[in-house]
């Protein structure tokens, strides 16, 4: 079943998309920026910078960090953070429903099988490229 | 005004998104893969590989290339190519309409101004990173 992925650009510097939202959801589940980043295969620094950029995007922070404590600092979503995730997922699901007929039309036009293995495609590509440039 | 960008993943190997669709539209306007690619700042090779991947994605080609002729080969969208662009743009517009309320809710929560200049953010980031790791 085809899957729609969305990015919302608010302006030239501010956007949210599937990566940031997934990270926020994992922080909500795991209570830690480091653990959430690890699960997405990113460094702590990268995860932290993403969180920082979303925090600066909105009027209030979306992630609250608690430093220290017996088990080290944790992180959790603020009320706004949960609302951001909820609205993004609602955009996704409204879009998927509204666009179902056109997505179905595109799916109906797909080739029966997926692309051929890379080496075959490579050879064909080469032949066709030659015929196009002559 | 916020802008929604969509990618449709049909399966693990086949997807269409804003880049491929823009390229198809430019080919339709300019009648040339090379000219369309140039306008998007990509090499002929890259443009050609993108076209090739969309051609293999669907049951029939979306771009038809004519080799030779007095002015060299040209390219145009097939009927299927035009339909693919039309359905993708319809998905986009249906999604934007259906998701308007949630996008508006997200926009209302944006900070008044965009992110601060890079050097200020850098300094803040450093301070906050220190407080998080202690």
Explain the overall architecture.
2 copies of one chain form a homodimer. The first copy, chain A, has 134 residues and is α+β, with helices and mostly antiparallel strands. The first copy, chain A, is 59% helix and 13% strand. Chain A is built from 6 helices and 4 strands, in the order E-E-H-H-H-E-E-H-H-H. In chain A, the strands form 2 sheets. In chain A, strands 1-2 form a two-stranded antiparallel sheet. Chain A has a two-stranded antiparallel ribbon with strand order 3-4. In chain A, helix 1 (18-30) crosses helix 2, helix 1 (18-30) crosses helix 4 and helix 2 (33-39) crosses helix 3. The interface between A and B is large, with 58 and 59 residues. Strand 1 (3-9) of chain A pairs antiparallel with strand 1 (3-9) of chain B, so a sheet runs across the interface.
Task: Itemize the secondary structure elements and their pairings.
Two copies of one chain form a homodimer.
Chain A: E1 3-9, E2 15-16, H1 18-30, H2 33-39, H3 44-57, E3 63-66, E4 74-77, H4 79-98, H5 100-108, H6 118-133
Antiparallel strand pairs in A: 1-2, 3-4
Descriptive key words:
homodimer; 134 residues; alpha+beta; two-stranded antiparallel ribbon; 6 helices; 13% strand; elongated; disordered C terminus
